[in-house]
Write a structure and sequence with these properties.
Layout lengths: L9 H10 L8 H4 L5 H13 L6 H10 L4 H13 L5 H16 L3 H10 L4 H9 L3 H17 L6 H14 L4 H14 L8
Length: about 200
């Protein structure tokens, strides 16, 4: 029989560590060929475009974060544009429609978001020019009506200030914001402050 164990595992750990074989030397052939940057980039692009459109700028940034060489990224992005998988103008239209509908954003706020997405200023101007001013006003009215319900216990001057601030944060011009706030307060039987 072996020696009786006295509760000290140190000897076992040392024996285990000494018995462990050294790691095998790196075998260049066994490691396989270097990753094909183009195949990796193509997969990244297709994964990113699945389910949602993205701007060229966003995709280029994603490829850069994944260390895809710039010349490979540029070539693939150009090819994806040629076949219509990347279309900044269509992306901008979709973004504007979605953000105006779901977030209630005005043209100014949408322009800032498009700039952050890497959309060219000219493309953004063209797309934003298509936004109907009546639709933008209706979005402002809907926002004010919704917020006004939570301001029942607030005096009229405070309500007007908060509503105008809400519209300003959403990017609405001051003239439109004050006109909409004044109209909606009057519609609710409240008085907008003058001055």
């Amino acid at each position: 029989m072996s020696e009786q164990w006295d509760g000290d595992v140190r000897l076992g750990v040392e024996a285990w560590g000494a018995a462990a074989p050294p790691p095998p030397p790196e075998d260049a052939e066994a490691a396989g060929p270097e990753a094909d940057h183009e195949a990796v980039a193509r997969k990244i692009l297709l994964d990113q475009l699945t389910g949602q459109a993205r701007s060229r700028h966003e995709l280029a940034a994603r490829l850069a974060r994944r260390n895809v060489p710039e010349e490979v990224a540029s070539r693939l992005l150009d090819r994806f544009e040629e076949v219509g998988l990347i279309d900044d103008e269509a992306f901008a239209r979709s973004w504007v429609d979605s953000r105006q509908r779901t977030r209630g954003l005005a043209k100014r706020a949408l322009a800032q978001e498009l700039r952050r997405k890497g959309i060219a200023d000219e493309t953004a101007r063209e797309v934003l020019a298509e936004v109907d001013p009546d639709d933008e006003e209706q979005v402002a009215r809907d926002l004010v009506r919704k917020k006004l319900r939570s301001l029942r216990n607030v005096d009229d001057a405070t309500a007007a200030r908060r509503l105008a601030g809400l519209l300003a944060r959403k990017g609405f011009p001051a003239g439109l914001a004050f006109a909409v706030v004044k109209d909606e307060l009057a519609e609710a039987g409240r008085e907008a402050p003058t001055g």
